[in-house]
Every structure is written in C-alpha cells, then in structure tokens.
Amino acid sequence: MIGSHIIPRFYLEQFATPAKRKGKPGRIWVYEKQKQPDQRATTAQGFENGYFGYLRPDGSTDGTLEESFENELVRLENECDGFLVCDKSHLFHWPAGSREKLAFYAALLYSRATQRRDHSAKNSRYTAGIFEKAIEEDKSVLDEIAASLSPRFNQPVAAVEVREMLLKPVQEQKTPYAEKNDFLTGLLANARNIANHILSKPIWEVLQSPDGVEFITSDNPVISVVQLPNGKLHPGYGFGKPDVIVLFPLAPSACLAAGAFSSGTRVSVGYRRIDQAMVKEVNEALVSICDRYVYSKTRSDDVRRMVDSFAGMFRYGVNALMPVGLKLPSVAEAREHLRQRFGLGE
To answer: Is the dihedral of CA 104, 25, 282, 212 positive or negative?
Structure first.
C-alpha cells in the first residue's frame, strides 16, 4: 500500500515556509474546525496510505494497479509544476499550451479531493439504489425480460432468475470497494471534463493580493462560485454554468479566477491587484466548501475564526454541486434502461 498525497506536496509547498536546509519539506499552517492551528511539514499533511489504491472484493489493495496509477498521476503533475510556479507573476509569458496545462492541473486537484471522492461514492450508492428499486418493485419488467430470454436460451427462464441476475451487480455496486474503484476509474476522465469547462471560460485573471495579505487554500482547493449582487461569493455550482467563476489559489500572493470578475481584461490571461476585502471574500468561499483542512503560509487568527465559524458549510451532494456533471437516473429511467438493455425498448 502506497502512501499518497491527496493534495500534491508540490502544491502545498507553494503555501509553505521553505525549509532552511535544502531538500527538507516546508512547513504549512493547518486549521481544523474548533482546533488550534498547527504548523506541519508538507510531507505529512494531506497524506493517506492507499488513497489511490484499487480494492479487491475482499478489501485488499491491488498493489500493481495502485503503483501504476500513482506513477501516472505523478507524471501528469510534474508536467504542470513549472506553470504553477511561474504563472503567479505578471511577468510570466503564457506560451502556447500553458493554459491547458494549468486547467488540467486545477481539474486534477478538484477531481482527486476527498470531497469529490465522497460525492462520487454517494452518487454511486444512489444510482445502485435506484436500479435496485426498479428491479424489486416492477415485476412486469422481470417478466418481459424473462420472456425475451427464454427463446434465446431455448428453455424457460423464470422471472426470479432474472431478478437474481440483475440484482447481483447492482448490490455489488453498493460495496465500499466498488465505490472506491469507480472513483479512481473515472478520476482522469472527470479531470479532463472539468479542464474543458475551465478552458471554456473566455476570461482568465490572476488575482494578486496586496502586501501583507495572503490567499489561503484547502483540501478542496479548486471551487466554483458566483458573485451575488451584494458582492459575496457563493460556492458550489456546476462548472459549466456561464456565470460561474472557477477559483484556484496558486500561492499566498495569487489566485486564478477563470471566468474573471473584471470585464476590462482583453488578453487571454490578465493580472489584477485586488484589495483586502476581495481577498477575504475568496478565502471565505474556500473555507466554506473545504472538506476538513484549511492551509495558510502565515498563522492567522482571522483564518482560525473563519474556519471555526463556517468551515465545510457547503458539501457536495448536500447543498452544492447537485449533481456534478451528470444527471442521476430516476426509477422510471432505470426501468427503461433495463428494458433497452435486453432489446425491449424498440
């Protein structure tokens, strides 16, 4: 079982105080609700054994698949690391392909975060439950399928046999190992989908904080917001909505805003110095939709109070992103899907 960083260490290092000795990890301030802030090494924070490990039905980890997937994630991250460092500066010249790299990196961090993992599992359980309900509550569908299978096998097929055949994979889908494997299997495809939404935003800005004021980040560092008429940022909308702004803190001094607040930007990526009040709005939005941890470079009582007041106020699948990027089926749709699967919908 491999120890994995849920949020890449390289990303956390952008918010850390560098170590005095070369090669040693930086240290970052970590906040949890109703706990005192704690300064920790980036090697230890956001670290979980087996996070990217595929599970077998008995609950053990498939080490070969885990290593292969972990290596692929590291390769993809490394391709983007240079852009993450450079693009916070207004002196950076964005070469061809750099927006694509940063969009994918941001989407990858979103797709692997614990909030999306839990939301993916919830969607998986919901969908399996809907199909289970469709199978259990409508005997006519089972009778139709049984009748269609009997001539194919040249022998009678009972509805109870069809029920058992259909229920087995559905009930397996509700197991923890299936939920986790689904999350991992769809992770890169989800990242590519979210990256396309980010790239579709016509205006990108890198928001720069004033001296002495810092952006923070969290264990859910890429969020979608809309700006309300009163100026507040409300998080947790679908990335494809036209008025959504995607926020991704790059460092204490910079935060990407794809879908930008300013209509004055006329280049592919603009830079804008914002005031302390706007930094606070961004930070509050990030805190409100974190999963568990919030991070800052400098210890801040303001951040601690913010975390204690409303950390995790928004949760995917509860009051945010309902659903994210997909339409969950109804019982009627599940029933029709079963009919079509056996050639009964034509």
So the answer is: negative
